[in-house]
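Possible race condition, two jobs.
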Amino acid sequence: AEAVQASCIIMNLRFSKKHPNKTPLELFAGIKPDVTHLQAFGTRAYVTYTQPGQCKLAPRSQLCILLSPDDSMKGYKCYDPAANFVLLSKDNRPFCIILSISKHIPG
């Protein structure tokens, strides 16, 4: 369901064939869409969290998988594979993207 929602968001933000300089959102609502919040679906991300009285050296983030921007609040939906549930991150900058470089060994 999250992948379908992410693809619908992207489909509504791209230009239409009938009006090549306008998006469907622009035609319907009359406003230009803001795409600064978009991130790649399935990107590995760290969701930060803090708890009152937490030790200074305690971990403050959890490795998750980015799903989509959340509709009900400013934030992102992220899947936590360790706990097997979806987190809602409310931070404006909730995570740092990890760039993974895989080495290809010719076979």
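Job #2 (started ~2 s after job #1):
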Amino acid sequence: MRNKIISVMLVGVMATALCACGDGTPVDSSIEDKVQAVVEAEDEDTALADDLPDSAGSYKKAYQKVVDDLSSAGDADMFALVDVNDDDIPELAASSSEGSWDKDQVFLYTADAGKAVLLASDIGPGMEGHFIAYIEKGNVFIKSGAPTGEYYTFYVIGDNQPEEFFSAGHFQMLDDNDNEVETYMIDEEEVTKDEYDSQLNDALESGEFIMLAEPESLNMVKYNVSFKDGYMALEETEEIPYLPYDEISELLAE
């Protein structure tokens, strides 16, 4: 039921936005409205689901299995419980201290009915702008990466599954005369640089996010973030440590 509510809301707001963009009129619904619609639907069903078994602690067994599997496969050796969507079940972040551009080594999970659900995974950071970040308690997480520029895909957790609600890209291409041309896209529609900055800043209304992996640190890193002149500006504010296998296992056993 929750998935239906969220899907209908998202389809409605996205259709409104696309129609408005098509005829050149201003878009009334903001990114905040889109996220709020999902959050309200999520809260409604979360309240109805408070008595379900998964609300208690079955997520811990599911996460322990993920920790075991990632560790034995050599895909991750650092773990943390994080709060993406401000409910009673934390999410699980995992990363590798080695880093790799050959396979996924950054992961974000949630839990549903005692089973772990993969929300996002990616290669190690530093290659073509790849990263995964989340807005703490904002029910928003972001995947980034593109070979010829920057591309950001924004998701919410709806019915314990990742649901894309917004995307933005800034690309540098060569025209027929080999001149560099910069293109800005919002939800696959070309926009101006100012519109690009404005809508991305709206999507990041809190002005901060936590990056799950960073090339220069073995910790998660919290940033103040903003977009100006088509580019993302980051100001580090805090490092948030991961836990090794033994410590996360002890935490999940409580």
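Residues 157 and 163 are 6 Å apart (CA to CA).
Logs attached separately.
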